[in-house]
Every structure is written in structure tokens, then in C-alpha cells.
Design a protein that fits this description.
12 strands, 44% helix, 5-stranded mixed sheet, globular
Length: 426
């Protein structure tokens, strides 16, 4: 006899089967460097080249090519010292002055957070980081320590001061970061192919995720909003995880305790939601849209639920099946509610797969699911239904594959924030 309160642990892999089965039940009604704009030299250099109207040049990796804010460029201190000694000296002095302020502020923020008792699940991590921050502050005085120059600086440039530019791409940036971390010289003037040859001599594959370079940046300070975002990411990763999953306009909280929950009723709601989405698409009413802040329109349902909890952060994942275009798309977001009450989109990723291109082992894994087997038995004498079921299984495999891609990207994003509370830099 089960308790009246059932804990629903709704997995998107089960959901991918449900939405796939929906196709049978329905008979199947069947990029980012842009804003800087002009000149793109993707293979000439592994890094970005910014030519200023003052005739000076900055070589590094532009962090924010889009938008109208001042350009922020990660630049190797070694290159900067050779090419602009005055700027390098200024940034070194700023780094030295900022070190004490940033370490003290980090210590005080952690202590204040612990005093609120917000999330008991983070006690061990926060205590460990508090001890680390206190030690870093003490190291500045006992004895007075010479500040070691950082390997990289962030150079800020006002956009009107830019005369021209050459932007590389993420793959080439990856190669450059591997080159810097491996001690290869002249990264700023080398092509991706030249750096790759040197990396292969060290048995390094530059197509792998690049080493994190934020540990080698000059010390920095989070704004209040950035600190809230950082703590939300850490809370989601190590403490209170709040997640929603669904399709169309329906979002269901993962792991939520629902009194007198009826799994079959929830499955029915999800199936109906997918049916409605398919009908809207077929009738031309479905239009994928985002707000001016880049928040997908479908996130509204998750935001509404998060406000009711109330929660200050969440991850939401949506499945969208396109039977006409033969695509299965999974989109996922991470959002944080700022002190102002505004919800901010912090991370977003999507992946789509073709059901026709799925591997046989993935298809067999879904076909052997007990729910699918039960449906097969019900329609064993119906050739048309059997064909639709095969198509639905392939959609399920495509959804699983897209979900794996998105989850991998999410873990790469979150894991960077879980080691220390002052890295990576925003």
C-alpha cells in the first residue's frame, strides 16, 4: 500500500517515450559572432585581432562580441607586456590593489550567506570556501606577500574606438587556449594549424574541451547580481536542485512531492500538450519566439511555477517534436531571479536530431522498453499502427540523443562553478 503522497521522479527519457507514443495515438498528423560585424578571418589566426583608431592593436579572445557594451578581451600578459608596456603596468597595478578588496569581499559574502542559513545542503562547501577565503586574506599580511602577476588580463575597449577587427571562432579559440596552457609561444601570431601541429607534438588533442583559464586571470569582483547568479548555480549543482521538464505549454517539476499524484494523469496531460502543439504547428499557429532578453516563450510556464514555490533559480527543459520536418528538438535553460525581482536567462542550449539517423542500438533500447512492448502487443494485428510505432520509437531515440547533448553542455557549464566561489570570472 503506497503512501498518499507520491514522489514523482519524472525522467525525460520516459517522457521521450510518451511523446513518441503520442505520435502513434495521433496517427502522426503529419549562429555567434554577429554584432561586431564586418571582417571575419576564421583561419588566419586562432585569436581575435582588434585594430584601434589609435593605430594600436589588441590580440586575444573577445568575450562579448555581440551587443553594445564595452568590449572585454582576454589578453595574454606576456603579449601585452611586449606590445603595450604602459597598459600592462596599469593592469598589473590594478590587479595588485584589487586583490585585497576581492579576497576580503569574498570572505564577507560567504560569511553573510552562511548566517542566513538559506540552504543547509551547501554547509560543507560553504565552510570549506570560507576557510579558504580567510586563509587567502591572511596570506596578504603574514608575511606581506608579493603579488604574482596573472597570466592573463581582461582589457576593456569602448566600441567607438575600434577601427577594424578580425574574429576567429570557438574551435580556434579552443586551440589557442590549449596552446597558452601548454606553453607554446607566439599564440597571438600563429594560425590554428600551426598551433595544432605543436600541440600534437605534446600528444594534446585540441578538439577536446579547453582548460579553464579563469584561474589565471587577474582577481576580479562579482557585482551583487553576479554573486546571486553564482550562488544560484552552486545551489542547483550541489544543493537544492529545481528543475522542470515538459512539452508545449506544460512544465512538470522533476522530483517534486505531489500529494495524491497520479502518474497516468500526468502522462495524459503531457500527451495532450504534445497533441495541442502538433495541431498548432499543422495549422500554422505555432511560432517559436523569445522575449527581448532571449528567454524562450515556453519558459513562461516554468517561471510561473517557480514563483509559486517560491524559487530563485531553476533549470527547465522542453521537448519539441516536428513530425513534418522529421526532427526532435530538446532545449534547456537555466534562469535566476535577481534581487530586483527580474528573471534572468543565464544559460541556454538546444540540440536537434533526425529520427531517421539514429543508431540501431539506441532504437532497440527504446523498443525493449516494457511500455513499448505492451503497446506492440495491443497493435500486433494492425500493420499501420506497427509502422507508426516504429516511427515513434525512432523519435524517442532522437529525443534521447538530443537530450544527452544538451545535458553534456549543461554539465560543462555548471561544473566550472562548483570548485571555488571566485572562479570562473563572469
Amino acid at each position: 500500500m503506497q503512501n498518499r503522497t507520491t514522489v514523482i521522479r519524472f525522467d525525460l527519457r520516459l517522457f521521450s517515450r510518451i511523446v513518441g507514443i503520442t505520435l502513434v495515438c495521433c496517427s502522426v498528423f503529419f549562429s555567434a559572432y554577429s554584432a561586431l560585424g564586418q571582417n571575419v578571418a576564421r583561419d588566419r589566426f586562432a585569436i581575435d585581432v582588434i585594430n584601434l583608431k589609435s593605430k594600436k592593436q589588441i590580440r586575444g579572445i573577445v568575450l562579448n562580441p555581440a551587443g553594445n557594451d564595452d568590449l572585454r578581451i582576454v589578453v595574454s600578459r606576456e603579449w601585452l607586456q611586449k606590445n603595450d608596456r604602459a597598459l600592462c603596468k596599469t593592469l598589473d597595478e590594478q590587479a595588485s590593489q584589487e586583490l585585497r578588496v576581492s579576497r576580503t569581499e569574498l570572505r564577507d559574502r560567504i560569511a553573510n550567506w552562511k548566517a542566513t542559513g538559506k540552504n543547509a545542503g551547501l554547509d560543507f562547501h560553504m565552510q570549506s570556501e570560507l576557510e579558504r577565503a580567510e586563509k587567502m586574506v591572511q596570506e596578504l599580511d603574514n608575511p606581506p606577500a608579493a603579488v604574482q602577476a596573472p597570466q592573463f588580463h581582461i582589457v576593456t575597449v569602448k566600441r567607438p574606438l575600434v577601427a577594424s577587427y578580425f574574429l576567429s571562432n570557438q574551435a580556434n579559440h579552443n586551440i589557442a587556449m590549449w596552446g597558452w596552457s601548454s606553453g607554446i609561444p607566439l599564440i597571438e601570431t600563429s594560425s590554428p594549424a600551426e598551433i595544432t601541429r605543436e600541440l600534437k607534438k605534446q600528444n594534446i588533442d585540441p578538439s577536446q574541451p579547453a582548460p579553464e583559464i579563469s584561474d589565471h586571470l587577474a582577481p576580479g569582483r562579482d557585482t551583487d547580481d553576479q554573486w546571486d547568479i553564482r550562488m544560484a548555480i552552486v545551489s542547483q549543482g550541489l544543493g537544492e536542485s529545481i528543475s522542470f521538464q515538459g512539452s508545449g505549454d506544460l512544465m512538470i517539476r522533476v522530483g517534486a512531492e505531489t500529494a495524491d499524484a497520479n502518474v497516468n494523469a500526468i502522462m495524459g496531460q503531457l500527451m495532450q500538450s504534445q497533441v495541442d502543439a502538433l495541431l498548432k504547428e499543422l495549422s500554422g499557429q505555432s511560432k517559436k519566439s523569445s522575449t527581448k532578453d532571449g528567454i524562450p516563450a515556453w519558459a513562461k510556464a516554468a517561471i510561473t511555477q517557480a514563483d509559486k514555490i517560491p524559487a530563485t533559480h531553476f533549470r527547465a527543459t522542453q521537448v519539441d517534436l516536428d513530425p513534418l520536418g522529421e526532427r526532435a528538438t530538446v532545449e534547456s535553460i537555466f534562469m535566476v531571479k535577481l534581487a530586483s525581482g527580474q528573471w534572468k536567462l543565464v544559460w541556454r542550449a538546444s540540440a536537434d536530431e533526425s529520427p531517421a539517423e539514429q543508431k540501431e542500438d539506441a532504437i532497440k533500447r527504446i523498443a525493449n522498453d516494457p511500455q513499448i512492448i505492451a503497446i506492440k502487443e495491443q497493435f500486433s494485428d494492425n500493420a499501420g499502427a506497427a509502422q507508426s510505432l516504429d516511427r515513434a520509437i525512432r523519435f524517442g531515440a532522437a529525443t534521447d540523443s538530443a537530450l544527452n547533448t544538451v545535458n553534456d553542455e549543461y554539465m560543462q557549464f555548471v561544473s566550472k562553478f562548483l570548485k571555488h566561489l571566485d572562479y570562473p570570472r563572469f
